[in-house]
Design a protein that fits this description.
Elements: H1 3-11, H2 16-19, E1 22-25, H3 41-47, E2 75-76, E3 96-100, E4 102-103, H4 113-122, E5 125-128, E6 131-132, H5 136-145, E7 152-154, H6 160-163, H7 165-168, H8 177-180, H9 189-192, H10 196-200, E8 203-204, E9 207-208, E10 211-213, E11 223-227, H11 228-233, H12 244-254, E12 262-264, H13 268-271, E13 281-284, E14 287-290, H14 295-308, H15 315-318, H16 325-330, E15 334-339, H17 346-355, E16 361-363, E17 377-378, E18 385-389, H18 395-408, H19 415-422, E19 429-432, E20 435-438, H20 440-445, E21 461-462, H21 467-480, E22 484-485, E23 493-496, H22 501-505, H23 507-517, H24 523-553
Parallel strand pairs: 1-23, 2-21, 3-5, 3-7, 4-6, 12-15, 17-22
Antiparallel strand pairs: 7-18, 8-9, 10-18, 11-15, 11-16, 13-14, 19-20
Helix pairs in contact: 23-24
Length: 557
Protein backbone atom coordinates (compact mmCIF):
# COMPACT_ATOMS: atom_id res chain seq x y z
CA UNK A 1 0.00 0.00 0.00
CA UNK A 2 1.64 3.24 -1.09
CA UNK A 3 1.43 6.50 0.82
CA UNK A 4 -1.37 8.18 -1.14
CA UNK A 5 -3.47 5.02 -1.20
CA UNK A 6 -3.14 4.67 2.55
CA UNK A 7 -4.06 8.28 3.32
CA UNK A 8 -7.15 8.13 1.12
CA UNK A 9 -8.18 4.81 2.61
CA UNK A 10 -7.69 6.04 6.15
CA UNK A 11 -10.32 8.75 5.75
CA UNK A 12 -12.89 6.41 4.24
CA UNK A 13 -12.38 2.91 5.54
CA UNK A 14 -14.29 0.49 3.33
CA UNK A 15 -17.45 -1.25 4.45
CA UNK A 16 -18.31 -2.16 8.00
CA UNK A 17 -15.11 -0.80 9.58
CA UNK A 18 -16.14 2.78 8.85
CA UNK A 19 -19.61 2.17 10.24
CA UNK A 20 -18.57 0.26 13.36
CA UNK A 21 -19.95 1.68 16.61
CA UNK A 22 -17.40 3.18 18.99
CA UNK A 23 -17.83 0.46 21.58
CA UNK A 24 -15.72 -0.55 24.55
CA UNK A 25 -16.06 -3.42 27.00
CA UNK A 26 -17.06 -2.63 30.59
CA UNK A 27 -17.46 -6.09 32.10
CA UNK A 28 -20.71 -7.93 32.53
CA UNK A 29 -22.17 -5.85 35.31
CA UNK A 30 -23.59 -3.44 32.78
CA UNK A 31 -22.92 -0.42 34.96
CA UNK A 32 -21.55 2.74 33.37
CA UNK A 33 -18.54 4.24 35.10
CA UNK A 34 -18.13 8.01 34.97
CA UNK A 35 -14.82 7.88 33.16
CA UNK A 36 -15.59 5.45 30.40
CA UNK A 37 -19.28 5.94 29.70
CA UNK A 38 -21.11 7.64 26.87
CA UNK A 39 -21.34 11.42 26.92
CA UNK A 40 -24.39 13.52 27.72
CA UNK A 41 -25.52 16.14 25.23
CA UNK A 42 -24.91 19.05 27.58
CA UNK A 43 -21.68 17.64 29.00
CA UNK A 44 -20.28 16.97 25.56
CA UNK A 45 -21.19 20.46 24.37
CA UNK A 46 -19.18 21.95 27.24
CA UNK A 47 -16.20 19.67 26.62
CA UNK A 48 -15.91 19.90 22.83
CA UNK A 49 -13.24 22.22 21.44
CA UNK A 50 -14.40 25.27 19.51
CA UNK A 51 -14.11 24.75 15.76
CA UNK A 52 -12.16 27.46 13.94
CA UNK A 53 -11.59 26.90 10.22
CA UNK A 54 -8.01 27.25 9.02
CA UNK A 55 -7.60 29.82 6.23
CA UNK A 56 -3.81 29.71 5.87
CA UNK A 57 -3.95 27.43 2.82
CA UNK A 58 -6.60 28.02 0.15
CA UNK A 59 -8.09 24.99 -1.63
CA UNK A 60 -8.71 25.01 -5.38
CA UNK A 61 -12.09 23.39 -4.77
CA UNK A 62 -13.59 24.76 -1.52
CA UNK A 63 -15.47 22.56 0.92
CA UNK A 64 -19.28 22.49 0.58
CA UNK A 65 -21.41 22.33 3.71
CA UNK A 66 -24.25 19.85 4.12
CA UNK A 67 -26.07 19.62 7.43
CA UNK A 68 -24.52 20.23 10.85
CA UNK A 69 -21.06 18.59 11.06
CA UNK A 70 -21.38 17.46 7.43
CA UNK A 71 -19.11 18.87 4.73
CA UNK A 72 -17.21 17.81 1.64
CA UNK A 73 -13.44 17.46 1.64
CA UNK A 74 -11.68 20.41 -0.05
CA UNK A 75 -9.86 19.66 -3.29
CA UNK A 76 -6.35 20.62 -4.38
CA UNK A 77 -5.40 20.47 -8.06
CA UNK A 78 -1.77 21.38 -7.39
CA UNK A 79 0.53 21.14 -4.42
CA UNK A 80 1.03 24.65 -2.98
CA UNK A 81 4.15 26.08 -4.61
CA UNK A 82 5.23 28.15 -1.62
CA UNK A 83 4.20 26.27 1.54
CA UNK A 84 3.19 28.69 4.30
CA UNK A 85 4.32 28.33 7.90
CA UNK A 86 1.49 27.94 10.40
CA UNK A 87 3.60 27.42 13.54
CA UNK A 88 5.97 30.05 14.90
CA UNK A 89 9.32 28.72 16.00
CA UNK A 90 9.75 25.25 17.47
CA UNK A 91 6.75 23.83 19.36
CA UNK A 92 8.65 21.67 21.85
CA UNK A 93 10.77 22.61 24.86
CA UNK A 94 13.22 19.75 24.81
CA UNK A 95 11.07 16.99 26.31
CA UNK A 96 11.54 13.29 25.55
CA UNK A 97 8.64 10.97 24.69
CA UNK A 98 8.04 7.46 23.43
CA UNK A 99 5.29 6.72 20.93
CA UNK A 100 3.66 3.55 19.63
CA UNK A 101 1.58 3.41 16.45
CA UNK A 102 0.42 0.48 14.32
CA UNK A 103 2.24 0.10 11.02
CA UNK A 104 1.24 -2.10 8.11
CA UNK A 105 4.53 -2.26 6.29
CA UNK A 106 8.28 -2.17 6.86
CA UNK A 107 9.33 -0.56 10.14
CA UNK A 108 11.85 2.26 9.52
CA UNK A 109 15.31 2.01 11.08
CA UNK A 110 15.38 3.66 14.53
CA UNK A 111 17.18 7.00 14.64
CA UNK A 112 17.03 7.42 10.86
CA UNK A 113 17.57 10.76 9.12
CA UNK A 114 13.83 11.56 8.96
CA UNK A 115 13.23 10.88 12.65
CA UNK A 116 16.25 13.07 13.50
CA UNK A 117 14.99 15.89 11.25
CA UNK A 118 11.53 15.69 12.81
CA UNK A 119 12.94 15.86 16.35
CA UNK A 120 14.83 19.01 15.38
CA UNK A 121 11.72 20.55 13.81
CA UNK A 122 9.54 19.64 16.79
CA UNK A 123 12.01 20.59 19.50
CA UNK A 124 11.55 17.29 21.33
CA UNK A 125 13.04 13.83 21.28
CA UNK A 126 10.38 11.48 19.98
CA UNK A 127 11.34 7.82 20.16
CA UNK A 128 9.11 6.29 17.51
CA UNK A 129 8.26 2.62 18.02
CA UNK A 130 5.92 1.49 15.23
CA UNK A 131 4.38 -1.91 15.99
CA UNK A 132 3.10 -4.58 13.61
CA UNK A 133 -0.43 -3.53 12.70
CA UNK A 134 -1.43 -7.14 12.05
CA UNK A 135 -0.79 -8.01 15.72
CA UNK A 136 -1.69 -4.66 17.25
CA UNK A 137 -4.96 -5.87 18.74
CA UNK A 138 -3.00 -8.33 20.89
CA UNK A 139 0.07 -6.15 21.55
CA UNK A 140 -1.79 -3.26 23.16
CA UNK A 141 -3.81 -5.26 25.74
CA UNK A 142 -0.50 -6.66 27.02
CA UNK A 143 0.70 -3.09 27.62
CA UNK A 144 -2.50 -1.96 29.30
CA UNK A 145 -2.75 -4.97 31.60
CA UNK A 146 0.79 -4.26 32.79
CA UNK A 147 0.01 -0.52 32.92
CA UNK A 148 3.05 0.17 30.75
CA UNK A 149 1.70 2.38 28.00
CA UNK A 150 4.09 4.68 26.14
CA UNK A 151 3.75 8.44 26.49
CA UNK A 152 1.73 8.69 23.30
CA UNK A 153 -0.15 5.84 21.63
CA UNK A 154 -2.46 5.42 18.66
CA UNK A 155 -5.58 3.30 19.22
CA UNK A 156 -7.80 2.82 16.14
CA UNK A 157 -11.44 3.21 17.14
CA UNK A 158 -12.46 -0.04 15.45
CA UNK A 159 -10.46 -1.83 18.15
CA UNK A 160 -12.02 0.03 21.09
CA UNK A 161 -13.63 -3.20 22.40
CA UNK A 162 -10.31 -5.06 22.22
CA UNK A 163 -8.51 -2.30 24.08
CA UNK A 164 -11.34 -1.40 26.49
CA UNK A 165 -10.68 2.26 25.76
CA UNK A 166 -13.63 3.27 27.93
CA UNK A 167 -11.93 1.66 30.91
CA UNK A 168 -8.58 3.24 30.05
CA UNK A 169 -10.08 6.73 29.75
CA UNK A 170 -9.12 8.67 32.85
CA UNK A 171 -7.14 5.80 34.34
CA UNK A 172 -4.28 5.21 31.89
CA UNK A 173 -5.22 7.81 29.24
CA UNK A 174 -4.96 11.52 29.95
CA UNK A 175 -8.00 13.78 30.14
CA UNK A 176 -7.39 16.57 27.61
CA UNK A 177 -10.54 18.54 28.42
CA UNK A 178 -8.78 21.11 30.67
CA UNK A 179 -6.48 21.96 27.76
CA UNK A 180 -8.83 21.81 24.76
CA UNK A 181 -12.42 22.47 25.85
CA UNK A 182 -14.19 25.40 24.22
CA UNK A 183 -11.95 28.33 23.32
CA UNK A 184 -8.95 26.81 25.12
CA UNK A 185 -8.08 24.99 21.90
CA UNK A 186 -7.43 28.32 20.18
CA UNK A 187 -3.95 28.09 21.69
CA UNK A 188 -3.49 25.32 19.10
CA UNK A 189 -5.04 26.73 15.89
CA UNK A 190 -4.30 23.69 13.72
CA UNK A 191 -6.04 21.43 16.23
CA UNK A 192 -8.93 23.90 16.36
CA UNK A 193 -9.40 23.36 12.62
CA UNK A 194 -10.34 19.73 13.21
CA UNK A 195 -14.17 19.48 13.04
CA UNK A 196 -16.12 18.88 16.25
CA UNK A 197 -17.40 15.47 15.14
CA UNK A 198 -13.86 14.10 15.11
CA UNK A 199 -13.23 15.25 18.68
CA UNK A 200 -16.53 13.69 19.69
CA UNK A 201 -15.24 10.32 18.45
CA UNK A 202 -12.52 10.58 21.10
CA UNK A 203 -14.81 11.60 23.97
CA UNK A 204 -15.76 9.42 26.93
CA UNK A 205 -17.98 10.46 29.83
CA UNK A 206 -18.21 14.16 28.90
CA UNK A 207 -14.44 14.47 28.55
CA UNK A 208 -12.03 14.67 25.62
CA UNK A 209 -9.30 12.02 25.52
CA UNK A 210 -8.44 11.33 21.87
CA UNK A 211 -6.56 13.39 19.28
CA UNK A 212 -8.01 12.67 15.80
CA UNK A 213 -6.16 11.92 12.57
CA UNK A 214 -7.49 11.84 8.99
CA UNK A 215 -10.86 13.24 10.05
CA UNK A 216 -13.57 14.09 7.56
CA UNK A 217 -17.08 15.47 7.43
CA UNK A 218 -17.86 13.09 4.56
CA UNK A 219 -17.24 9.60 5.96
CA UNK A 220 -19.48 6.91 4.48
CA UNK A 221 -19.13 3.15 4.13
CA UNK A 222 -18.64 3.52 0.39
CA UNK A 223 -20.54 3.89 -2.82
CA UNK A 224 -21.61 2.11 -6.00
CA UNK A 225 -18.87 2.62 -8.55
CA UNK A 226 -19.05 2.07 -12.27
CA UNK A 227 -16.63 2.01 -15.18
CA UNK A 228 -17.36 5.48 -16.43
CA UNK A 229 -15.26 5.05 -19.56
CA UNK A 230 -17.16 1.90 -20.59
CA UNK A 231 -20.67 3.02 -19.72
CA UNK A 232 -20.36 6.49 -21.28
CA UNK A 233 -19.10 4.88 -24.48
CA UNK A 234 -22.47 3.09 -24.51
CA UNK A 235 -24.33 6.36 -23.87
CA UNK A 236 -25.04 5.54 -20.22
CA UNK A 237 -24.53 8.30 -17.65
CA UNK A 238 -24.89 8.29 -13.87
CA UNK A 239 -27.91 10.59 -13.84
CA UNK A 240 -29.93 7.95 -15.70
CA UNK A 241 -29.91 5.70 -12.64
CA UNK A 242 -32.51 7.04 -10.21
CA UNK A 243 -33.91 3.85 -8.71
CA UNK A 244 -33.12 0.21 -7.95
CA UNK A 245 -35.16 -0.77 -11.02
CA UNK A 246 -32.98 1.48 -13.19
CA UNK A 247 -29.87 -0.18 -11.82
CA UNK A 248 -31.25 -3.68 -12.28
CA UNK A 249 -32.13 -2.87 -15.90
CA UNK A 250 -28.47 -2.15 -16.59
CA UNK A 251 -27.72 -5.78 -15.74
CA UNK A 252 -29.28 -7.10 -18.91
CA UNK A 253 -27.81 -4.34 -21.04
CA UNK A 254 -24.22 -4.71 -19.80
CA UNK A 255 -23.87 -8.46 -19.19
CA UNK A 256 -22.27 -10.55 -21.91
CA UNK A 257 -21.16 -13.74 -20.22
CA UNK A 258 -19.87 -15.21 -23.48
CA UNK A 259 -17.31 -12.41 -23.54
CA UNK A 260 -16.63 -12.83 -19.84
CA UNK A 261 -18.35 -9.57 -18.87
CA UNK A 262 -20.93 -9.22 -16.10
CA UNK A 263 -22.65 -6.02 -15.06
CA UNK A 264 -22.25 -6.42 -11.31
CA UNK A 265 -19.82 -7.30 -8.58
CA UNK A 266 -20.89 -7.26 -4.90
CA UNK A 267 -23.14 -4.29 -4.04
CA UNK A 268 -24.89 -5.06 -0.72
CA UNK A 269 -22.60 -3.31 1.78
CA UNK A 270 -22.80 -0.02 -0.08
CA UNK A 271 -26.26 -0.17 -1.63
CA UNK A 272 -28.63 -1.44 1.09
CA UNK A 273 -29.02 2.02 2.72
CA UNK A 274 -30.80 3.24 -0.45
CA UNK A 275 -33.91 1.38 0.76
CA UNK A 276 -33.92 3.54 3.86
CA UNK A 277 -32.21 0.89 5.99
CA UNK A 278 -30.33 2.39 8.98
CA UNK A 279 -26.71 1.68 9.74
CA UNK A 280 -27.67 -0.39 12.76
CA UNK A 281 -30.33 1.34 14.86
CA UNK A 282 -33.17 3.77 14.28
CA UNK A 283 -35.78 5.25 16.59
CA UNK A 284 -39.48 4.93 15.77
CA UNK A 285 -42.16 6.34 18.05
CA UNK A 286 -39.49 6.86 20.68
CA UNK A 287 -38.39 3.23 20.64
CA UNK A 288 -35.12 1.72 19.50
CA UNK A 289 -35.44 -0.49 16.40
CA UNK A 290 -32.67 -2.60 14.89
CA UNK A 291 -32.22 -2.63 11.12
CA UNK A 292 -33.04 -6.36 11.13
CA UNK A 293 -36.51 -5.49 12.40
CA UNK A 294 -37.38 -3.10 9.56
CA UNK A 295 -39.40 -3.84 6.43
CA UNK A 296 -36.86 -1.85 4.46
CA UNK A 297 -34.12 -4.33 5.38
CA UNK A 298 -36.12 -7.26 4.00
CA UNK A 299 -37.01 -5.32 0.85
CA UNK A 300 -33.35 -4.53 0.21
CA UNK A 301 -32.38 -8.15 0.85
CA UNK A 302 -35.07 -9.47 -1.48
CA UNK A 303 -33.81 -7.22 -4.31
CA UNK A 304 -30.20 -8.34 -3.81
CA UNK A 305 -31.24 -12.00 -3.68
CA UNK A 306 -32.98 -11.57 -7.03
CA UNK A 307 -29.90 -9.83 -8.40
CA UNK A 308 -27.75 -12.79 -7.34
CA UNK A 309 -30.03 -15.14 -9.27
CA UNK A 310 -30.38 -12.91 -12.33
CA UNK A 311 -27.20 -13.98 -14.09
CA UNK A 312 -25.96 -10.39 -14.03
CA UNK A 313 -23.41 -10.85 -11.19
CA UNK A 314 -19.93 -12.20 -11.79
CA UNK A 315 -19.66 -15.85 -10.67
CA UNK A 316 -16.56 -15.11 -8.60
CA UNK A 317 -18.43 -12.36 -6.75
CA UNK A 318 -21.19 -14.85 -5.94
CA UNK A 319 -18.51 -17.27 -4.74
CA UNK A 320 -17.30 -14.63 -2.27
CA UNK A 321 -13.92 -14.05 -3.90
CA UNK A 322 -13.83 -10.47 -2.66
CA UNK A 323 -10.06 -10.09 -2.91
CA UNK A 324 -10.25 -10.37 -6.70
CA UNK A 325 -12.98 -7.74 -7.07
CA UNK A 326 -10.64 -4.88 -7.91
CA UNK A 327 -8.91 -6.94 -10.59
CA UNK A 328 -12.28 -7.79 -12.13
CA UNK A 329 -13.20 -4.11 -12.18
CA UNK A 330 -9.88 -3.01 -13.74
CA UNK A 331 -10.11 -5.72 -16.37
CA UNK A 332 -13.67 -4.79 -17.34
CA UNK A 333 -14.98 -8.18 -16.23
CA UNK A 334 -17.40 -6.32 -13.94
CA UNK A 335 -18.62 -2.81 -14.71
CA UNK A 336 -20.51 -1.88 -11.53
CA UNK A 337 -19.12 -2.61 -8.06
CA UNK A 338 -19.50 -1.42 -4.49
CA UNK A 339 -16.43 -0.12 -2.71
CA UNK A 340 -15.01 2.30 -0.17
CA UNK A 341 -14.54 5.87 -1.41
CA UNK A 342 -10.87 5.61 -0.46
CA UNK A 343 -10.42 3.75 -3.76
CA UNK A 344 -11.10 6.91 -5.78
CA UNK A 345 -7.53 8.13 -6.06
CA UNK A 346 -4.37 8.39 -8.13
CA UNK A 347 -3.09 4.90 -7.33
CA UNK A 348 -6.41 3.45 -8.46
CA UNK A 349 -6.24 5.36 -11.73
CA UNK A 350 -2.70 4.21 -12.39
CA UNK A 351 -3.63 0.56 -11.77
CA UNK A 352 -6.78 0.83 -13.86
CA UNK A 353 -5.03 2.60 -16.71
CA UNK A 354 -2.42 -0.14 -16.78
CA UNK A 355 -5.23 -2.54 -17.69
CA UNK A 356 -7.09 -0.11 -19.96
CA UNK A 357 -5.70 3.25 -21.06
CA UNK A 358 -9.18 4.83 -21.07
CA UNK A 359 -9.95 3.76 -17.48
CA UNK A 360 -12.06 6.21 -15.50
CA UNK A 361 -13.84 5.51 -12.23
CA UNK A 362 -17.27 7.00 -11.61
CA UNK A 363 -20.01 6.63 -9.03
CA UNK A 364 -23.78 6.69 -9.19
CA UNK A 365 -25.35 9.38 -7.04
CA UNK A 366 -27.17 8.45 -3.86
CA UNK A 367 -30.73 7.55 -4.83
CA UNK A 368 -33.84 6.18 -3.16
CA UNK A 369 -34.52 2.59 -4.20
CA UNK A 370 -38.14 3.35 -5.06
CA UNK A 371 -37.15 6.34 -7.19
CA UNK A 372 -39.65 8.53 -5.33
CA UNK A 373 -38.49 9.04 -1.76
CA UNK A 374 -35.83 11.54 -0.73
CA UNK A 375 -32.39 9.88 -0.98
CA UNK A 376 -30.45 9.50 2.26
CA UNK A 377 -27.26 7.87 3.52
CA UNK A 378 -25.92 7.60 7.07
CA UNK A 379 -22.57 9.02 8.09
CA UNK A 380 -19.77 6.95 9.51
CA UNK A 381 -17.40 7.81 12.36
CA UNK A 382 -15.74 11.19 11.76
CA UNK A 383 -12.32 9.83 12.72
CA UNK A 384 -11.24 6.23 13.15
CA UNK A 385 -7.55 6.98 13.77
CA UNK A 386 -7.21 8.31 17.33
CA UNK A 387 -4.16 8.89 19.54
CA UNK A 388 -3.97 9.31 23.30
CA UNK A 389 -1.52 10.69 25.86
CA UNK A 390 -0.47 8.79 28.97
CA UNK A 391 -2.27 9.87 32.15
CA UNK A 392 1.07 9.85 33.98
CA UNK A 393 2.33 12.85 32.02
CA UNK A 394 2.54 16.14 33.89
CA UNK A 395 0.60 19.27 32.92
CA UNK A 396 3.69 20.76 31.26
CA UNK A 397 4.34 17.54 29.33
CA UNK A 398 0.75 17.35 28.09
CA UNK A 399 0.92 20.96 26.91
CA UNK A 400 4.21 20.24 25.12
CA UNK A 401 2.70 17.19 23.39
CA UNK A 402 -0.35 19.21 22.35
CA UNK A 403 1.96 21.85 20.86
CA UNK A 404 3.64 19.04 18.91
CA UNK A 405 0.23 17.74 17.84
CA UNK A 406 -0.63 21.24 16.63
CA UNK A 407 2.45 21.10 14.38
CA UNK A 408 1.53 17.64 13.10
CA UNK A 409 -2.02 18.82 12.33
CA UNK A 410 -0.89 21.68 10.08
CA UNK A 411 -3.06 21.94 6.94
CA UNK A 412 -2.36 20.20 3.65
CA UNK A 413 0.38 21.92 1.68
CA UNK A 414 1.76 23.98 4.58
CA UNK A 415 5.47 23.98 5.47
CA UNK A 416 4.81 21.77 8.49
CA UNK A 417 2.62 19.34 6.52
CA UNK A 418 5.34 19.04 3.89
CA UNK A 419 7.91 18.24 6.57
CA UNK A 420 5.70 15.68 8.36
CA UNK A 421 4.57 13.93 5.19
CA UNK A 422 7.60 14.19 2.91
CA UNK A 423 10.62 15.06 5.08
CA UNK A 424 13.54 17.27 4.11
CA UNK A 425 13.78 18.44 0.51
CA UNK A 426 16.81 17.00 -1.22
CA UNK A 427 17.13 14.22 1.36
CA UNK A 428 13.72 12.60 1.54
CA UNK A 429 11.97 14.17 -1.45
CA UNK A 430 12.50 16.30 -4.50
CA UNK A 431 9.98 18.41 -6.40
CA UNK A 432 9.02 16.76 -9.69
CA UNK A 433 6.56 18.74 -11.84
CA UNK A 434 5.45 20.60 -8.72
CA UNK A 435 4.83 17.44 -6.70
CA UNK A 436 6.90 16.31 -3.67
CA UNK A 437 8.32 12.99 -4.82
CA UNK A 438 10.02 10.57 -2.44
CA UNK A 439 13.70 9.71 -2.79
CA UNK A 440 14.93 6.26 -1.83
CA UNK A 441 15.46 7.46 1.75
CA UNK A 442 12.00 9.01 1.74
CA UNK A 443 10.45 5.71 0.71
CA UNK A 444 12.26 3.92 3.52
CA UNK A 445 11.84 6.38 6.38
CA UNK A 446 8.84 8.67 5.81
CA UNK A 447 5.74 6.72 6.78
CA UNK A 448 2.10 7.86 6.80
CA UNK A 449 1.58 5.56 9.79
CA UNK A 450 4.03 7.20 12.20
CA UNK A 451 3.79 10.95 12.89
CA UNK A 452 0.45 11.45 11.07
CA UNK A 453 -0.97 8.66 13.24
CA UNK A 454 -0.42 10.92 16.26
CA UNK A 455 -2.24 13.90 14.73
CA UNK A 456 -3.06 15.12 11.24
CA UNK A 457 -5.23 17.73 9.53
CA UNK A 458 -8.70 17.03 8.13
CA UNK A 459 -8.85 15.10 4.86
CA UNK A 460 -8.47 16.69 1.45
CA UNK A 461 -8.89 15.41 -2.09
CA UNK A 462 -5.64 15.65 -4.00
CA UNK A 463 -4.17 13.64 -6.87
CA UNK A 464 -1.31 15.75 -8.26
CA UNK A 465 -0.80 15.22 -11.98
CA UNK A 466 -4.28 13.76 -12.55
CA UNK A 467 -6.69 16.57 -11.81
CA UNK A 468 -9.62 14.77 -13.43
CA UNK A 469 -9.75 12.35 -10.50
CA UNK A 470 -9.88 15.16 -7.97
CA UNK A 471 -12.51 17.03 -9.97
CA UNK A 472 -14.67 13.91 -10.40
CA UNK A 473 -14.59 12.91 -6.75
CA UNK A 474 -15.05 16.47 -5.44
CA UNK A 475 -18.01 17.01 -7.77
CA UNK A 476 -19.58 13.74 -6.62
CA UNK A 477 -19.19 14.71 -2.95
CA UNK A 478 -20.70 18.15 -3.63
CA UNK A 479 -23.69 16.62 -5.42
CA UNK A 480 -24.40 14.16 -2.59
CA UNK A 481 -23.45 15.93 0.65
CA UNK A 482 -27.06 17.09 1.12
CA UNK A 483 -28.21 13.47 1.45
CA UNK A 484 -25.98 12.57 4.40
CA UNK A 485 -27.43 12.30 7.90
CA UNK A 486 -26.23 11.41 11.39
CA UNK A 487 -27.33 7.90 12.39
CA UNK A 488 -28.48 6.92 15.87
CA UNK A 489 -25.52 6.87 18.30
CA UNK A 490 -23.37 8.77 15.79
CA UNK A 491 -19.79 9.28 17.06
CA UNK A 492 -20.88 8.10 20.52
CA UNK A 493 -18.51 6.04 22.59
CA UNK A 494 -20.45 3.36 24.43
CA UNK A 495 -19.06 1.10 27.15
CA UNK A 496 -21.02 -2.08 26.55
CA UNK A 497 -21.06 -5.23 28.72
CA UNK A 498 -18.83 -7.85 27.12
CA UNK A 499 -21.68 -10.37 27.28
CA UNK A 500 -23.58 -8.28 24.72
CA UNK A 501 -20.71 -7.90 22.27
CA UNK A 502 -21.61 -11.15 20.50
CA UNK A 503 -25.21 -10.03 20.07
CA UNK A 504 -24.05 -6.68 18.74
CA UNK A 505 -21.83 -8.37 16.14
CA UNK A 506 -24.69 -10.71 15.12
CA UNK A 507 -22.22 -12.85 13.19
CA UNK A 508 -24.64 -15.72 12.51
CA UNK A 509 -27.12 -13.31 10.93
CA UNK A 510 -24.40 -11.60 8.91
CA UNK A 511 -23.13 -14.94 7.59
CA UNK A 512 -26.63 -16.00 6.51
CA UNK A 513 -27.21 -12.55 5.10
CA UNK A 514 -24.12 -12.86 2.90
CA UNK A 515 -25.29 -16.24 1.65
CA UNK A 516 -28.63 -14.66 0.78
CA UNK A 517 -27.28 -11.78 -1.28
CA UNK A 518 -25.03 -14.31 -3.01
CA UNK A 519 -28.08 -16.41 -3.87
CA UNK A 520 -27.15 -19.37 -1.66
CA UNK A 521 -29.85 -18.81 0.97
CA UNK A 522 -33.41 -17.53 1.03
CA UNK A 523 -34.75 -14.39 2.63
CA UNK A 524 -36.68 -16.68 4.97
CA UNK A 525 -33.36 -18.19 6.12
CA UNK A 526 -32.21 -14.74 7.16
CA UNK A 527 -35.51 -14.14 8.96
CA UNK A 528 -34.97 -17.39 10.87
CA UNK A 529 -31.44 -16.32 11.79
CA UNK A 530 -32.80 -12.98 13.01
CA UNK A 531 -35.34 -14.76 15.22
CA UNK A 532 -32.53 -16.80 16.77
CA UNK A 533 -30.46 -13.63 17.20
CA UNK A 534 -33.30 -11.92 19.06
CA UNK A 535 -33.78 -14.79 21.49
CA UNK A 536 -30.03 -15.33 21.81
CA UNK A 537 -29.23 -11.82 22.95
CA UNK A 538 -30.57 -9.33 20.41
CA UNK A 539 -33.62 -8.40 22.47
CA UNK A 540 -31.51 -8.07 25.61
CA UNK A 541 -29.03 -5.87 23.68
CA UNK A 542 -31.81 -3.55 22.57
CA UNK A 543 -33.18 -3.26 26.09
CA UNK A 544 -29.74 -2.53 27.51
CA UNK A 545 -29.11 0.21 24.94
CA UNK A 546 -32.60 1.62 25.55
CA UNK A 547 -32.15 1.79 29.33
CA UNK A 548 -28.47 2.71 29.54
CA UNK A 549 -27.82 4.82 26.45
CA UNK A 550 -30.96 6.07 24.72
CA UNK A 551 -32.77 7.04 27.93
CA UNK A 552 -29.71 8.64 29.54
CA UNK A 553 -27.72 10.09 26.67
CA UNK A 554 -30.07 10.34 23.69
CA UNK A 555 -29.39 9.38 20.08
CA UNK A 556 -26.28 11.46 19.42
CA UNK A 557 -27.96 13.04 16.42
Amino acid sequence: MNRRTFVNTAVAVAGAAAMAPLLSACGDGGSQNNKGSASTKTGLKAALPTYVANTSVKADIPSVAGGADVMTDPGFLTYPANPVKTVDGVPGKGGSYTTVTPLWGTVPTPGNSFYEAMNKALGVTMTMKPADGNNYATIVPTMTSAKKLPDWIQLPTWWNPNFNVGGLAGTQLADLTPYLAGDKIKKYPNLAAIPSGAWQAGAWGDKIYGIPSFSSGFVIAGTTFYRRDVLEAKGITADQVKSADDLFALGKELTDSKRGVWAFDDLWTYLFPFWGVPNRWTVKDGKLVHKYETDEFLEALDWHNKLAKSGYMHPDALAGKDADGTTRFYGGKTLIAGGGTGAWNLADYQSGAAANKDYRRGSFNIFAADGKSTPSLFLGTSASIMSYLNAKLTKDQIEECLAVANYLAAPYGSAEYTMVNFGVEGTHYTMVDGVPTATDDGKKFVQAQTFPFLASPPAVISNPGENQITQDYAAWQAANVKYLYKPVFWNMNISMPTSLATADAAQAVEDTLKDCYHGKAKVSDVQAAISSWKSGGGTRLKQWLTDNILAKYGTGQ
